[in-house]
Amino acid sequence: MISENIHALNLVFYIYDRMSSKKQIILGIDPGTIVLGYGIIEVEKQKITLLSMGVIQLSKYENPLQKLRIIYDKIGGLIDNYQPNSCAIEAPFFGKNVQSMLKLGRAQGVAIASALAKEVEVIEYSPKKIKQSITGNGNASKEQVAAMLQQLIKFELQPKFLDATDGLAAAVCHHFQSGSTTTAVSGKVSGWADFINKNPTRLK
After folding, report:
1. Given a cut of 60, is residue 25 above it in pLDDT?
2. What is the pTM of this model?
3. What is the chain's Cα-based Rg?
4. Looking at 8-22, 50-64, 85-99, 108-122, which range is the least confident one?
5. Phi/psi of residue 187, each to 5°?
6. Does the domain spanning 23-203 belong to CATH 3.30.70.260?
C-alpha cells in the first residue's frame, strides 16, 4: 500500500515537472500611435529569459492609416520571428482626451488583429493590473515598473526604453497571471469569433 502511494506521488511530481518545464514564449505590447513598445520573453520552469525588447517609432509618419499598417506589419513580423504562444496587450486607459483615446484604441485593435491573424491567443490587461502584478502597486510609475523588471530580468535599462519596458511588463504580467483567475478587466481571445463574442460593443 505504501509503495503504491509513493508511486502515485512520484507520478504526480513527474507530471507537474513536465508541465512546468514546458517552454512558453509571450509577446507583450504597449500600444501607441507615436511609440509602440514591445517585449518578448521565454519562460521555462518559471525562469524568465528576455528574448527581445524594443519600440516601433511612428512619430515620423503623418498619415494615421499608414501608422496602423506599420503596426500590423511589425507585430506580424515579431510573431513570425519569435513564434509566441500568446500575446499580452495593455488595454487603453480612460482619459478626458477623446481623440487620444480613439487613436490609442485603433492602435491596440490593429495589434490585436495582427496577432489573431497569426492564430496567436490574445490577452488584455488593464494598466493598473499590469503595474499591480509587477510592483504590487497599481499606481506605480513607468520608472518603478522598469526598475522592478530589471530586478526580475537582468537587462541594461535605458530611459528611452520605458515604452519597451511597458510592453515587457505586459508579457511578464501574463506569465504571473497564467494559472490564476484573471479579473474582469482582463480577457482572453483565441480568434476573431471569440473576440467579437467577448467585445460586441467594439463593433458599434
Report:
1. yes
2. 0.78
3. 18
4. 8-22
5. -160, 145
6. no
Q: Looking at this protein, which amino acid is placed at residue 25?
A: I
Percentage, residues of the chain above pLDDT 70: 73
> What is the model's pLDDT at position 136?
94
User: By C-alpha distance, which of 176, 153, 179, 175 is closest to 164?
Assistant: 153
Domain boundaries, the chain: 23-203
Q: What is the pLDDT of residue 153?
A: 92
Strand partners, 161: none
Residue pair 183/138 in contact (Cβ under 8 Å)? The answer is no
CA distance 129 to 136: 9
What HEC string does the chain produce?
CHHHHHHHHHHHHHHHHHHHCCCEEEEEEECCCCEEEEEEEEEECCEEEEEEEEEEECCCCCCHHHHHHHHHHHHHHHHHHHCCCEEEEECCCCCCCHHHHHHHHHHHHHHHHHHHHCCCEEEEECHHHHHHHHHCCCCCCHHHHHHHHHHHCCCCCCHHHHHHHHHHHHHHHHHHHCCCCCCCCCEEECCHHHHHHHCHHHHC
Rounded to whole angstroms, how far apart are CA atoms 108 and 202?
A: 12
Catalogue the active-site residues.
30, 90, 163
The pLDDT tens digits for 110-150 are 999 999 999 999 999 999 999 999 999 999 999 999 999 99
